[in-house]
Amino acid sequence: MAETRTVTPPEADPSPGELLPSGRRFRIVLVLGFLTALGPLTIDMYLPALPTITEDFGATPAAVQLTLTGTLVGLALGQLLIGPLSDAAGRRAPLLAGVGVHLIASLLCVIAPNLAILGSLRVLQGLGAAAAAVVAMAIVRDLFSGFAAAKLFSRLMLVVGVAPILAPTIGGQTLQFTSWRGVFVVLTVAAAAILAATAIVLPETLPSERRRNGGITGTVRDYGRLLTDRVYLGLILVAGLAMAALFAYVSGSSYVLQDGFGLSEQQFAYVFAGGAVGLIGATQFNVRLLRRWTPQQILAGSLVAGLGFGLVLLILAATKTGGLVGILIPLWLVLAMVGLAMPNAPALALSRHGEAAGTAAALLGAVQFGVGALAAPLVGILGVGAVAMAVVVFGGMLAATLVCFLVVQPHRLPAEQPETVVVAVAH
Fold first, then answer.
1. Mean pLDDT of the region 88-112
2. Contacts of residue 381, Cβ cutoff 8 Å, sequence gap at least 6
3. pLDDT digits (tens, 9 = 90+) for 350-375
4. Cα R_g (the chain), whole angstroms
5. Do the beta carbons of residue 97 and residue 131 sit within 8 Å?
6. Which of 97, 103, 95 lies closest to 192, judged by CA?
7. Torsion from C-alpha of 5, 29, 286, 373, nearest 10 degrees
8. Under a CB-based contact definition with an 8 Å cutoff, are residues 124 and 73 in contact?
């Protein structure tokens, strides 16, 4: 998943993070990278094991895909709750508590006796991962500004961009030596290491005098103001629907590629990585496109192109034309278009509410993961196969395109300021 931050050009005075000794600054940046990678690892590492989990519990694919939905629900709720909490109570306590919850949930997943408990524990994992991601981004804002923040967000994007590629590969390799429960052992160890590093390295970066004291009333007021902005709501819904197309692929690809086309767990991991490379490559290429076109132009163009590639995917899947290649090529092209849309829709949305950027970003993330959570089990409900996945992918792109042109109306939006630097952070 991608979160877009808008930062401004260099300022005269150095930010607090720039005043830190280089060694300490490097350690802080490294830990922030691990924190933001926790979410993608939690979502993607167990994907090669979905068919095995289905068989072990004697469940349907749709029921097993609800464990992914649980993670996304946790990520959505966590951003809504923990973002404002960290503004009021400081960064360290919510961060350490969140990673601790992830650690305990991961450990309990190892011994989960049934699918219902596993799904509930995945919700807790999502909550913990949300705390890690949201607070890590807040710490960046606390310590750095301007060009220094842009550089750091770019580095974190590369770190977390690699995580969705590596996660299924790590999961596939783990399954060569153990059962699907071993994947959660790896996540437990990772969470323990991240928790220890966080406790040792990261300081409290939000002093008491800078904390928001509006309480629940202030938080509700901020959310209420956002919910009255039609264009903002349309933009975050576009981002969520694009995420729905992505998670239709995430939740259905293991069944389609392993059960439908006979790929091994390791082969699936490599193919999944190929799609992730296209997605991440598109987010990087977006920076070049912004030199010539506005974010709203790129958003509109990517959605129209993605809708066309989604239609091709649906036709080839329904007619069984081209076999595996006929599925992968249009699917990867859709993912690339999602990679272009995901940075620009949030960039336009957040630029409308600079006075409440943290709350606006939290609502954006909640909608993205919430809509993704709704889309994840649809592939299983529709029958798991390539056609089912293609229907949900195409449906997500169609809905995103309609909302963009009918609600947002990008051609009527004012152009972004040329000095603005847009940095996409993938989740």
1. 93
2. 62, 388
3. 677 655 555 776 787 788 878 877 88
4. 20
5. yes
6. 103
7. -70
8. no
Q: Are 250 and 168 in contact (CB under 8 A)?
A: no
- Going by C-alpha positions, the residue among 365, 308, 366 that lies closest to residue 336 is 308
CB distance 293 to 286 below 8 Å: no
Enter the pTM of the model: 0.72
- Side-chain-side CA neighbours of residue 20 (13 Å): 18
What's the token pair of residue 190? 């990772």
Cα 130 to Cα 32, 127, 185, 327, distances in angstroms: 13, 5, 20, 32
pLDDT over threshold 60, residue 8: no
- Quick count: other Cβ atoms within 10 Å of Cβ 12? 5
| Residue length of the chain | 427
What are the E-state strand segments in 61-180?
none
Give the pLDDT confidence of 33-62 residue by residue, as tens digits.
889 889 889 988 988 888 899 999 999 888
For residue 347, give the nearest of 290, 411, 281 by alpha carbon. Answer: 290
